């Protein structure tokens, strides 16, 4: 699991997002076991309680489930749950700001769509 900890958001949120990212890119598939809280805490040198808090967010969202005595596993339909949640967040956070700024600048819907179509990733 790839994760570069930052100071911009709580570590437990970063842990949950990193696990979600692994599920989205199929590094961890539905039904597969995720690394244990102990493994993650040792690897990133963070408190196991912090890791557990991040994992519990995913349990609450029904992305992960616990097999007693074995560990945490990816739920069936987890990828779709993540996509839907992130799409909603994208709409609320990014699009709301983007459209608000476009309105302030007098950018029409058509101009905005053209800008998006012409945008090239660097």
Distance between the termini: 25 Å
Biggest beta-sheet profile: 2 strands, antiparallel
* Spatial ordering of strands, largest sheet: 1-2
Assign the structural class, choosing from mainly alpha, mainly beta, alpha/beta, alpha+beta, or little secondary structure.
mainly alpha
Series of secondary-structure elements, N-terminal to C-terminal: HHHEEHH
Count of discrete alpha- or pi-helical segments spanning 4 or more residues: 5
How many DSSP-defined strands? 2
Mean pLDDT, as a whole number? 93
Rg, Å, rounded: 18 Å
Instruction: Estimate percent helicity.
Output: 55-70%
* Backbone shape: elongated
Beta content comes to 5-15%
Stretches where pLDDT is under 50 for at least 5 consecutive residues are none
Secondary structure elements and pairings:
Blueprint: H1 11-24, H2 37-44, H3 48-60, E1 64-67, E2 71-74, H4 78-105, H5 109-118
Antiparallel strand pairs: 1-2
Helix pairs in contact: 1-3, 2-3
Features:
two-stranded antiparallel ribbon, mainly alpha, elongated, 122 residues, 2 strands
Question: What do you see in this structure?
Answer:
The structure is a single chain. This protein has 122 residues and is mainly alpha-helical. It is built from 5 helices and 2 strands, in the order αααββαα. The chain has a two-stranded antiparallel sheet. Helix 1 packs across helix 3. The mean pLDDT is 93.
What's this, in brief?
This protein is mainly α and 122 residues long. 60% of the residues lie in helices and 7% in strands.
């Amino acid at each position: 699991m790839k994760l570069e900890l930052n100071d911009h958001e709580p570590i437990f949120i970063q842990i949950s997002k990193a696990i979600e990212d692994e599920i989205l890119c199929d590094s961890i598939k539905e039904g597969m076991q995720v690394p244990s809280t102990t493994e993650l805490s040792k690897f990133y040198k963070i408190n196991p309680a912090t890791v557990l808090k991040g994992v519990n967010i995913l349990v609450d969202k029904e992305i992960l489930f616990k097999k007693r005595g074995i560990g945490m596993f990816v739920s069936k339909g987890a990828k779709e749950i993540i996509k839907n949640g992130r799409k909603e967040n994208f709409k609320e956070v990014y699009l709301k700001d983007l459209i608000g700024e476009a309105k302030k600048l007098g950018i029409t819907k058509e101009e905005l769509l053209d800008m998006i179509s012409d945008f090239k990733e660097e």
